[in-house]
Design a protein that fits this description.
Aminopeptidase; 13-stranded mixed sheet; 2 domains; alpha+beta; two-stranded antiparallel sheet; 15 strands
Length: 283
């Protein structure tokens, strides 16, 4: 492999970077790219006319870990070592900051990441189905009254709870998701919360964080009752009740991911309180 001349994507590349995620059939919008490019560091390749040819993204988080995602290479440039090169740059960028690189890998990507020193730590299933919001937008009968809409005033306790549960601080990500137009965000008192965001192909529900399974299932049903159209949920294998409920409601497993870390062999945070992730691009 010859030398790969990389560039760094900036926040003004949000719209053009969707070319890569759209080609791959991924769910990210320009709003997702805008958030990730503002928070993270994104090496990549660009054609002479400015069209993105490849990307990767590293996000530093508060604590001991950093996130790698959005590893995309346009079809004509694949199998040339570009993905490995860009991931290597992201690893170096995070390790220079004293952070453990973590990512959620597809089955196709796992051999590459394993060869680069990443170790599997937990499994994730993506389930696809549909929301069932009533046409008048009301909450259906039978849902507990204690479910309420999350507001920006909830950010302090949500960010604190999620930092302990997820294992790293990412208040900027949570604040951004909560500020999205049309976002469904519910809380069960301060016992747990669920967020969502609109994607290109479906609404992504997650994260779902709760002190107990009953609260997580209640919030999931509440979120589904507020959403119409296609829905994606990335549920942790360690929380089978989520997948079981969704499958009863007609959801199907679309794909799997494996959370992998370089230099860490066990789950971080508190997986017992994590029921669904925000998505493989965010963790």
């Amino acid at each position: 492999m010859g030398a790969i001349e990389t560039i760094q994507f900036g926040s003004d590349d949000d719209a053009t970077c969707t070319i890569l995620s759209d080609e791959a059939g991924w769910n990210q919008t320009a709003a997702d790219w805008d958030m990730m490019l503002r928070i993270g560091w994104a090496p990549g390749l660009r054609a002479a006319d400015g069209t993105p040819l490849a990307s990767a993204l590293a996000m530093a988080m508060e604590g001991d870990i950093g996130w790698i995602s959005m590893v995309l290479v346009t079809a004509s440039k694949r199998r040339q070592g570009i993905a490995q090169h860009l991931v290597g740059l992201c690893i170096a960028w995070l390790e220079e900051r004293g952070l453990v690189p973590v990512l959620d890998a597809t089955p196709a990507g796992q051999p590459l990441y394993a060869s680069m020193g990443f170790t599997p730590i937990l499994g994730i299933k993506r389930l696809a189905g549909n929301g069932d919001a009533p046409s008048d937008g009301s909450m259906p009968n039978g849902l507990p009254d204690r479910l309420r809409d999350v507001t920006i005033d909830d950010i302090p306790w949500i960010a604190g709870f999620e930092r302990v549960t997820f294992g790293a601080g990412r208040e900027a990500v949570l604040r951004n998701l909560l500020s999205r137009p049309g976002a469904v965000a519910l809380a069960d008192g301060e016992n747990g919360f669920v967020l969502s965001r609109q994607g290109c192909n479906a609404t992504q529900i997650g994260p779902i964080v709760a002190h107990d399974e009953a609260s997580a299932l209640m919030m999931l049903q509440g979120a589904l009752a507020r959403i119409t159209g296609p829905v994606l949920i990335d549920a942790l294998d360690a929380q089978p009740a989520i997948a079981a409920l969704l499958e009863i409601r007609g959801f199907k497993v679309e794909r799997t991911f494996m959370r992998m870390a370089k230099g860490l062999t066990r789950p971080f945070g508190d997986p017992s309180k994590q029921f669904a992730i925000a998505g493989p691009e965010l963790g």
